[in-house]
TrEMBL record:
<dbReference type="InterPro" id="IPR035996">
    <property type="entry name" value="4pyrrol_Methylase_sf"/>
</dbReference>
<feature type="domain" description="Tetrapyrrole methylase">
    <location>
        <begin position="5"/>
        <end position="218"/>
    </location>
</feature>
<dbReference type="GO" id="GO:0008168">
    <property type="term" value="F:methyltransferase activity"/>
</dbReference>
<dbReference type="InterPro" id="IPR014777">
    <property type="entry name" value="4pyrrole_Mease_sub1"/>
</dbReference>
<protein>
    <recommendedName>
        <fullName>Tetrapyrrole methylase domain-containing protein</fullName>
    </recommendedName>
</protein>
<dbReference type="Pfam" id="PF00590">
    <property type="entry name" value="TP_methylase"/>
</dbReference>
<dbReference type="InterPro" id="IPR000878">
    <property type="entry name" value="4pyrrol_Mease"/>
</dbReference>
Length: 266
């Protein structure tokens, strides 16, 4: 008996984003583990297979998320090791700002047990559609909000900057379900080293249920600490400066173009 693991994503909006291959994996699994954004989504996915188990009980306020993720990973690995055809279904994309699927697949790879990931529609994909942003226009950089605060990270004000888990910004304990105004203010202070105080940013929440409205609330960056920051809020910071031409490289490219033209006409 050889077990396996497939990690799938069901997308963000209930019923709208799941791919046929992910649905088929869920329907055919011996056991399905669920990590969903809300109870309705969990019930919907549970209707596809009678042997579903939620991973939510591994979370606990005050418990380090490092332990939570380790326990979730061990659960998936043990189930696949026991010979079951296991599916782990996550909301969004299973591998975007989500470590459990990556960790479980890597552990099973080492044990030579088949494990793979199917792509899903993440909050990032919804954001581009709902806010009309093309990441290719001026570039787009994504950071986890606390990591952005805790490390020296580059800021390119000519690109979009997207901060994930902004509702948990500054949680050094890695164990809270939300931080608060004082923590968010430290993030604002850091951002104000790069952006003007009246720069408009967007608090973005894609709709989980088809009947819900998308949140795309525009506020001044300096008002961020007092704004309502939920677990599912993503902060979108549009560019505040223009792209600066790299004249040195442009000159080099012009020289190359001239050389190839001369080679052509000789
Ligand atoms: C642990 S990450 C999971 C992301 C998920 N794997 C995905 O593919 O979108 C949680 C963060 O994703 C973002 N997020 C989750 N749901 C969202 C939603 N409905 N709208 C906007 N952002 C969301 C928020 O930044 C949130 O703090």
């Amino acid at each position: 008996m050889s077990g396996s693991l497939v990690c799938v994503g069901v997308g963000i909006t209930l019923g709208a984003h799941i791919s046929p291959i992910s649905r088929s994996h869920i329907e055919q699994a011996d056991k399905v583990y669920l990590l969903m954004s809300d109870g309705f989504v969990e019930s919907w996915v549970s209707s596809m297979n009678s042997n579903c188990q939620s991973l939510q009980p591994f979370y606990d306020e005050g418990k380090s998320r490092h332990s939570t993720y380790r326990e979730m990973t061990n659960e998936l690995v043990s189930a696949a090791q026991s010979g079951l055809k296991v599916v782990a279904a996550f909301y969004g994309h299973p591998g975007v700002f989500a470590c459990v699927a990556h960790k479980a697949i890597s552990a099973l790879d080492k044990l030579n047990i088949p494990a793979k990931m199917e792509a899903g529609i993440s909050a990032e994909d919804c954001l581009y559609a709902d806010l009309g942003i093309d990441p290719g226009k001026t570039g787009c950089i994504h950071y986890e909000a606390s990591q952005f605060m805790l490390y020296q990270r580059a800021v390119d004000t000519a690109a979009h900057m997207i901060l994930w888990q902004v509702g948990l910004a500054g949680d050094v304990s890695f164990s809270k379900f939300s931080t608060g105004e004082e923590y968010a203010q430290l993030l604002v202070d850091l951002l104000l080293k790069h952006y003007p105080t009246d720069h408009q940013v967007v608090l973005y929440e894609a709709n989980t249920l088809p009947t819900e409205k998308v949140r795309k609330e525009q506020i001044r960056i300096s008002a961020l600490a007092k704004a309502k920051l939920n677990m599912q809020t993503t902060l979108v910071i549009p560019p505040s400066s223009k792209l600066i031409p790299n004249n040195k490289i442009r000159n080099e490219l012009n020289k190359l173009d001239r050389t190839s033209f001369l080679t052509l006409v000789q």
